[in-house]
């Protein structure tokens, strides 16, 4: 290794903030402060790397100088093809420079003549503050700029100065930006102590990482992070480990943060990966190694070089400059590293192949990308071809220019919901930073996923002090939905809508201890109009009862869904007030104390073991009329039961009461008279529910028997068993639709629906990877729980399955399976909607199918879907029915679904001919149907 510091590379003794080497390696650019403006200088590389060239006066040192920026230049970056140079500065501007054959645009050092001529071809205006960092995307499709205005702007490098998207989410100055080498992500680092990873498919924030940066302060001018050329590692600038500065290693595989580069004495300002994946024969094993090389610069004026194949740095250089290292640049041949400093000087480090290794060929690198990500590094010609395609259909003129927007299930709720993530305050056992002379990669105890902490953790620090980790209480974005393993943070009340829709007794957690009753949370599953509001005024007083002083032991948390407390909406009308068992077990448990449920103005109250007789204890069941507006109560009826009640439900006309002795009583809600004789099953009931129209009542027993009766007809509608699908779990939610289909949700998150036609349980949610992938991908569109309008989405929202395991991240984002998996999931959703009669959701999933096909579908698949909806082959227009002989599904014409799908194709110019072809056929069918209708009249 050789080190050289050319004194002739300077900005008139002003600071140099950025440096970058041209892809051809013949020139490099610097950016910084000029005499009275920002300065960009293009230098000849030959005099830097060769002593002979430096001594030869005929070889120019400076090629061009540009003083167009009005303030200091903070970053300069060459495009991947070397045709353009981008510069960003304190004047809020990004300038794009291009070499011209001659003319103005620059001048030589000290007023001399320019050797090369570089002209500003575009000035990008969009930031409201200083531009601190720039990064070109792979294949120069976009360029990203970040600023002190807390944003990152993605510019269209094919059509300057067009803005593709503005990434907002940081709350502090954004000081660094870098691209994933395969173009799927762009990462940014900010003074707000966070690093964010953004998806390039829709520019949404995919991941926010904060734990390694919690102790960091805003002590650096820039935070230049870098992505490894194999895409497996994202290395941040300033992070902290055990009170010392580090460069954090973030693994793409699960975004784990358990390793970092330590040893620098002050904040790390910049990291830069070598441009190539390197290889060499391992010294001891003599086997071929593939690895990446990284340079790290810091405010302590030291520079370290690391290989991912080694645990310790390859090189450490101290006091390289008199000020902080501000930028680093590798040459594309792989053996030259340039560094610049705030003291106005640069340094050149030259390595050999024996020291660093040999770069992987482009062919081998593409094979690696194909294996790891399902795509290679070559430019996506289909994207460019689509941009350059001639628009043949006028429908594409305006729509094709806009970014594709996925359909939403509830149009009026267009605003995206941000995921709520709890901050874990884990005890940090990170290793102390070693001296720079013994730098090494250290592991840090980092929480890779925010899993709930089920019990308090107490540790002692080195100085003997106690340190307690509080319990982590996660929240979800399902408007108060259940999360297994979560503990309610504060007492409160949630009101459901109807007894048939509330969480059953075994799924509810006591929130308030009281002598006579406990208030419990019920899940909201349907919104009712405001006219149906019938709440008991006494609940307001009870809601203020303080929480118990002593924390109770909670067992079996991994299987116990708990509902988050929320404020009652005025439009809901079910009141559920019951003392429930502490732990849901799937077993029938006697209701303790007073309990009541209400529907409309009628309330049914249960009190077990309240009447003592010589024959034994009796339970009382009372019907009460609550009259508004004074909320006066009038007793309607009263009856007694000889066995303790374990569960009950209330509908619009009836109430069902289930006892411990396996008996079931169905009562008229207005008179209390029995509708059926007392029925008995093979085991006690654990769940009961009414359909929305109250014509059907469902009961689920301990041994898995599901029985549904048609009350007006006094006949059984369905009798089946779900014990085979319980798999050691138990049912936590039971619902029956107006069509008589029972939905159940298990404690393990899986959910099912029974179909009489198929005589089988349909799988609604499970840990199946395709289902998890599909549900997580569409989670942003999850609606408020509403079983009447959105039954499928509501039941699926109860599932608690998380994202992919850490060792499958690369596979999850592989286009080789992601597209067919998404389409397979959507098509299954469509079939479920058909079977459970959910027309609103059916239309949504057909629209989502069109969205996915437009973005990633093949022509063969698109034609197959459209032909099925059209009802005929593309060459035969003799019928308007599909293979099933029905032109409509759930009362909606298949042509309506077809039009929704075709509308999504208008966002992609490449499908314009298919769009035109099928639109013409659809118009022909409509005109023919219109003529047929006219003849019949």
Automatic annotation (TrEMBL):
Q: Which residues form the signal peptide?
A: none
One annotated GO biological process: chromatin remodeling
Which SMART domains does the record associate with it? WD40 (SM00320)
Q: Which Gene3D superfamilies is this protein grouped with? A: YVTN repeat-like/Quinoprotein amine dehydrogenase
User: Which CDD domains did the record assign?
Assistant: WD40
What's this protein's family per the entry?
A: Belongs to the WD repeat HIR1 family.
Q: What is this protein called?
A: Protein HIRA
> From what organism does this protein derive?
Anopheles darlingi (Mosquito)
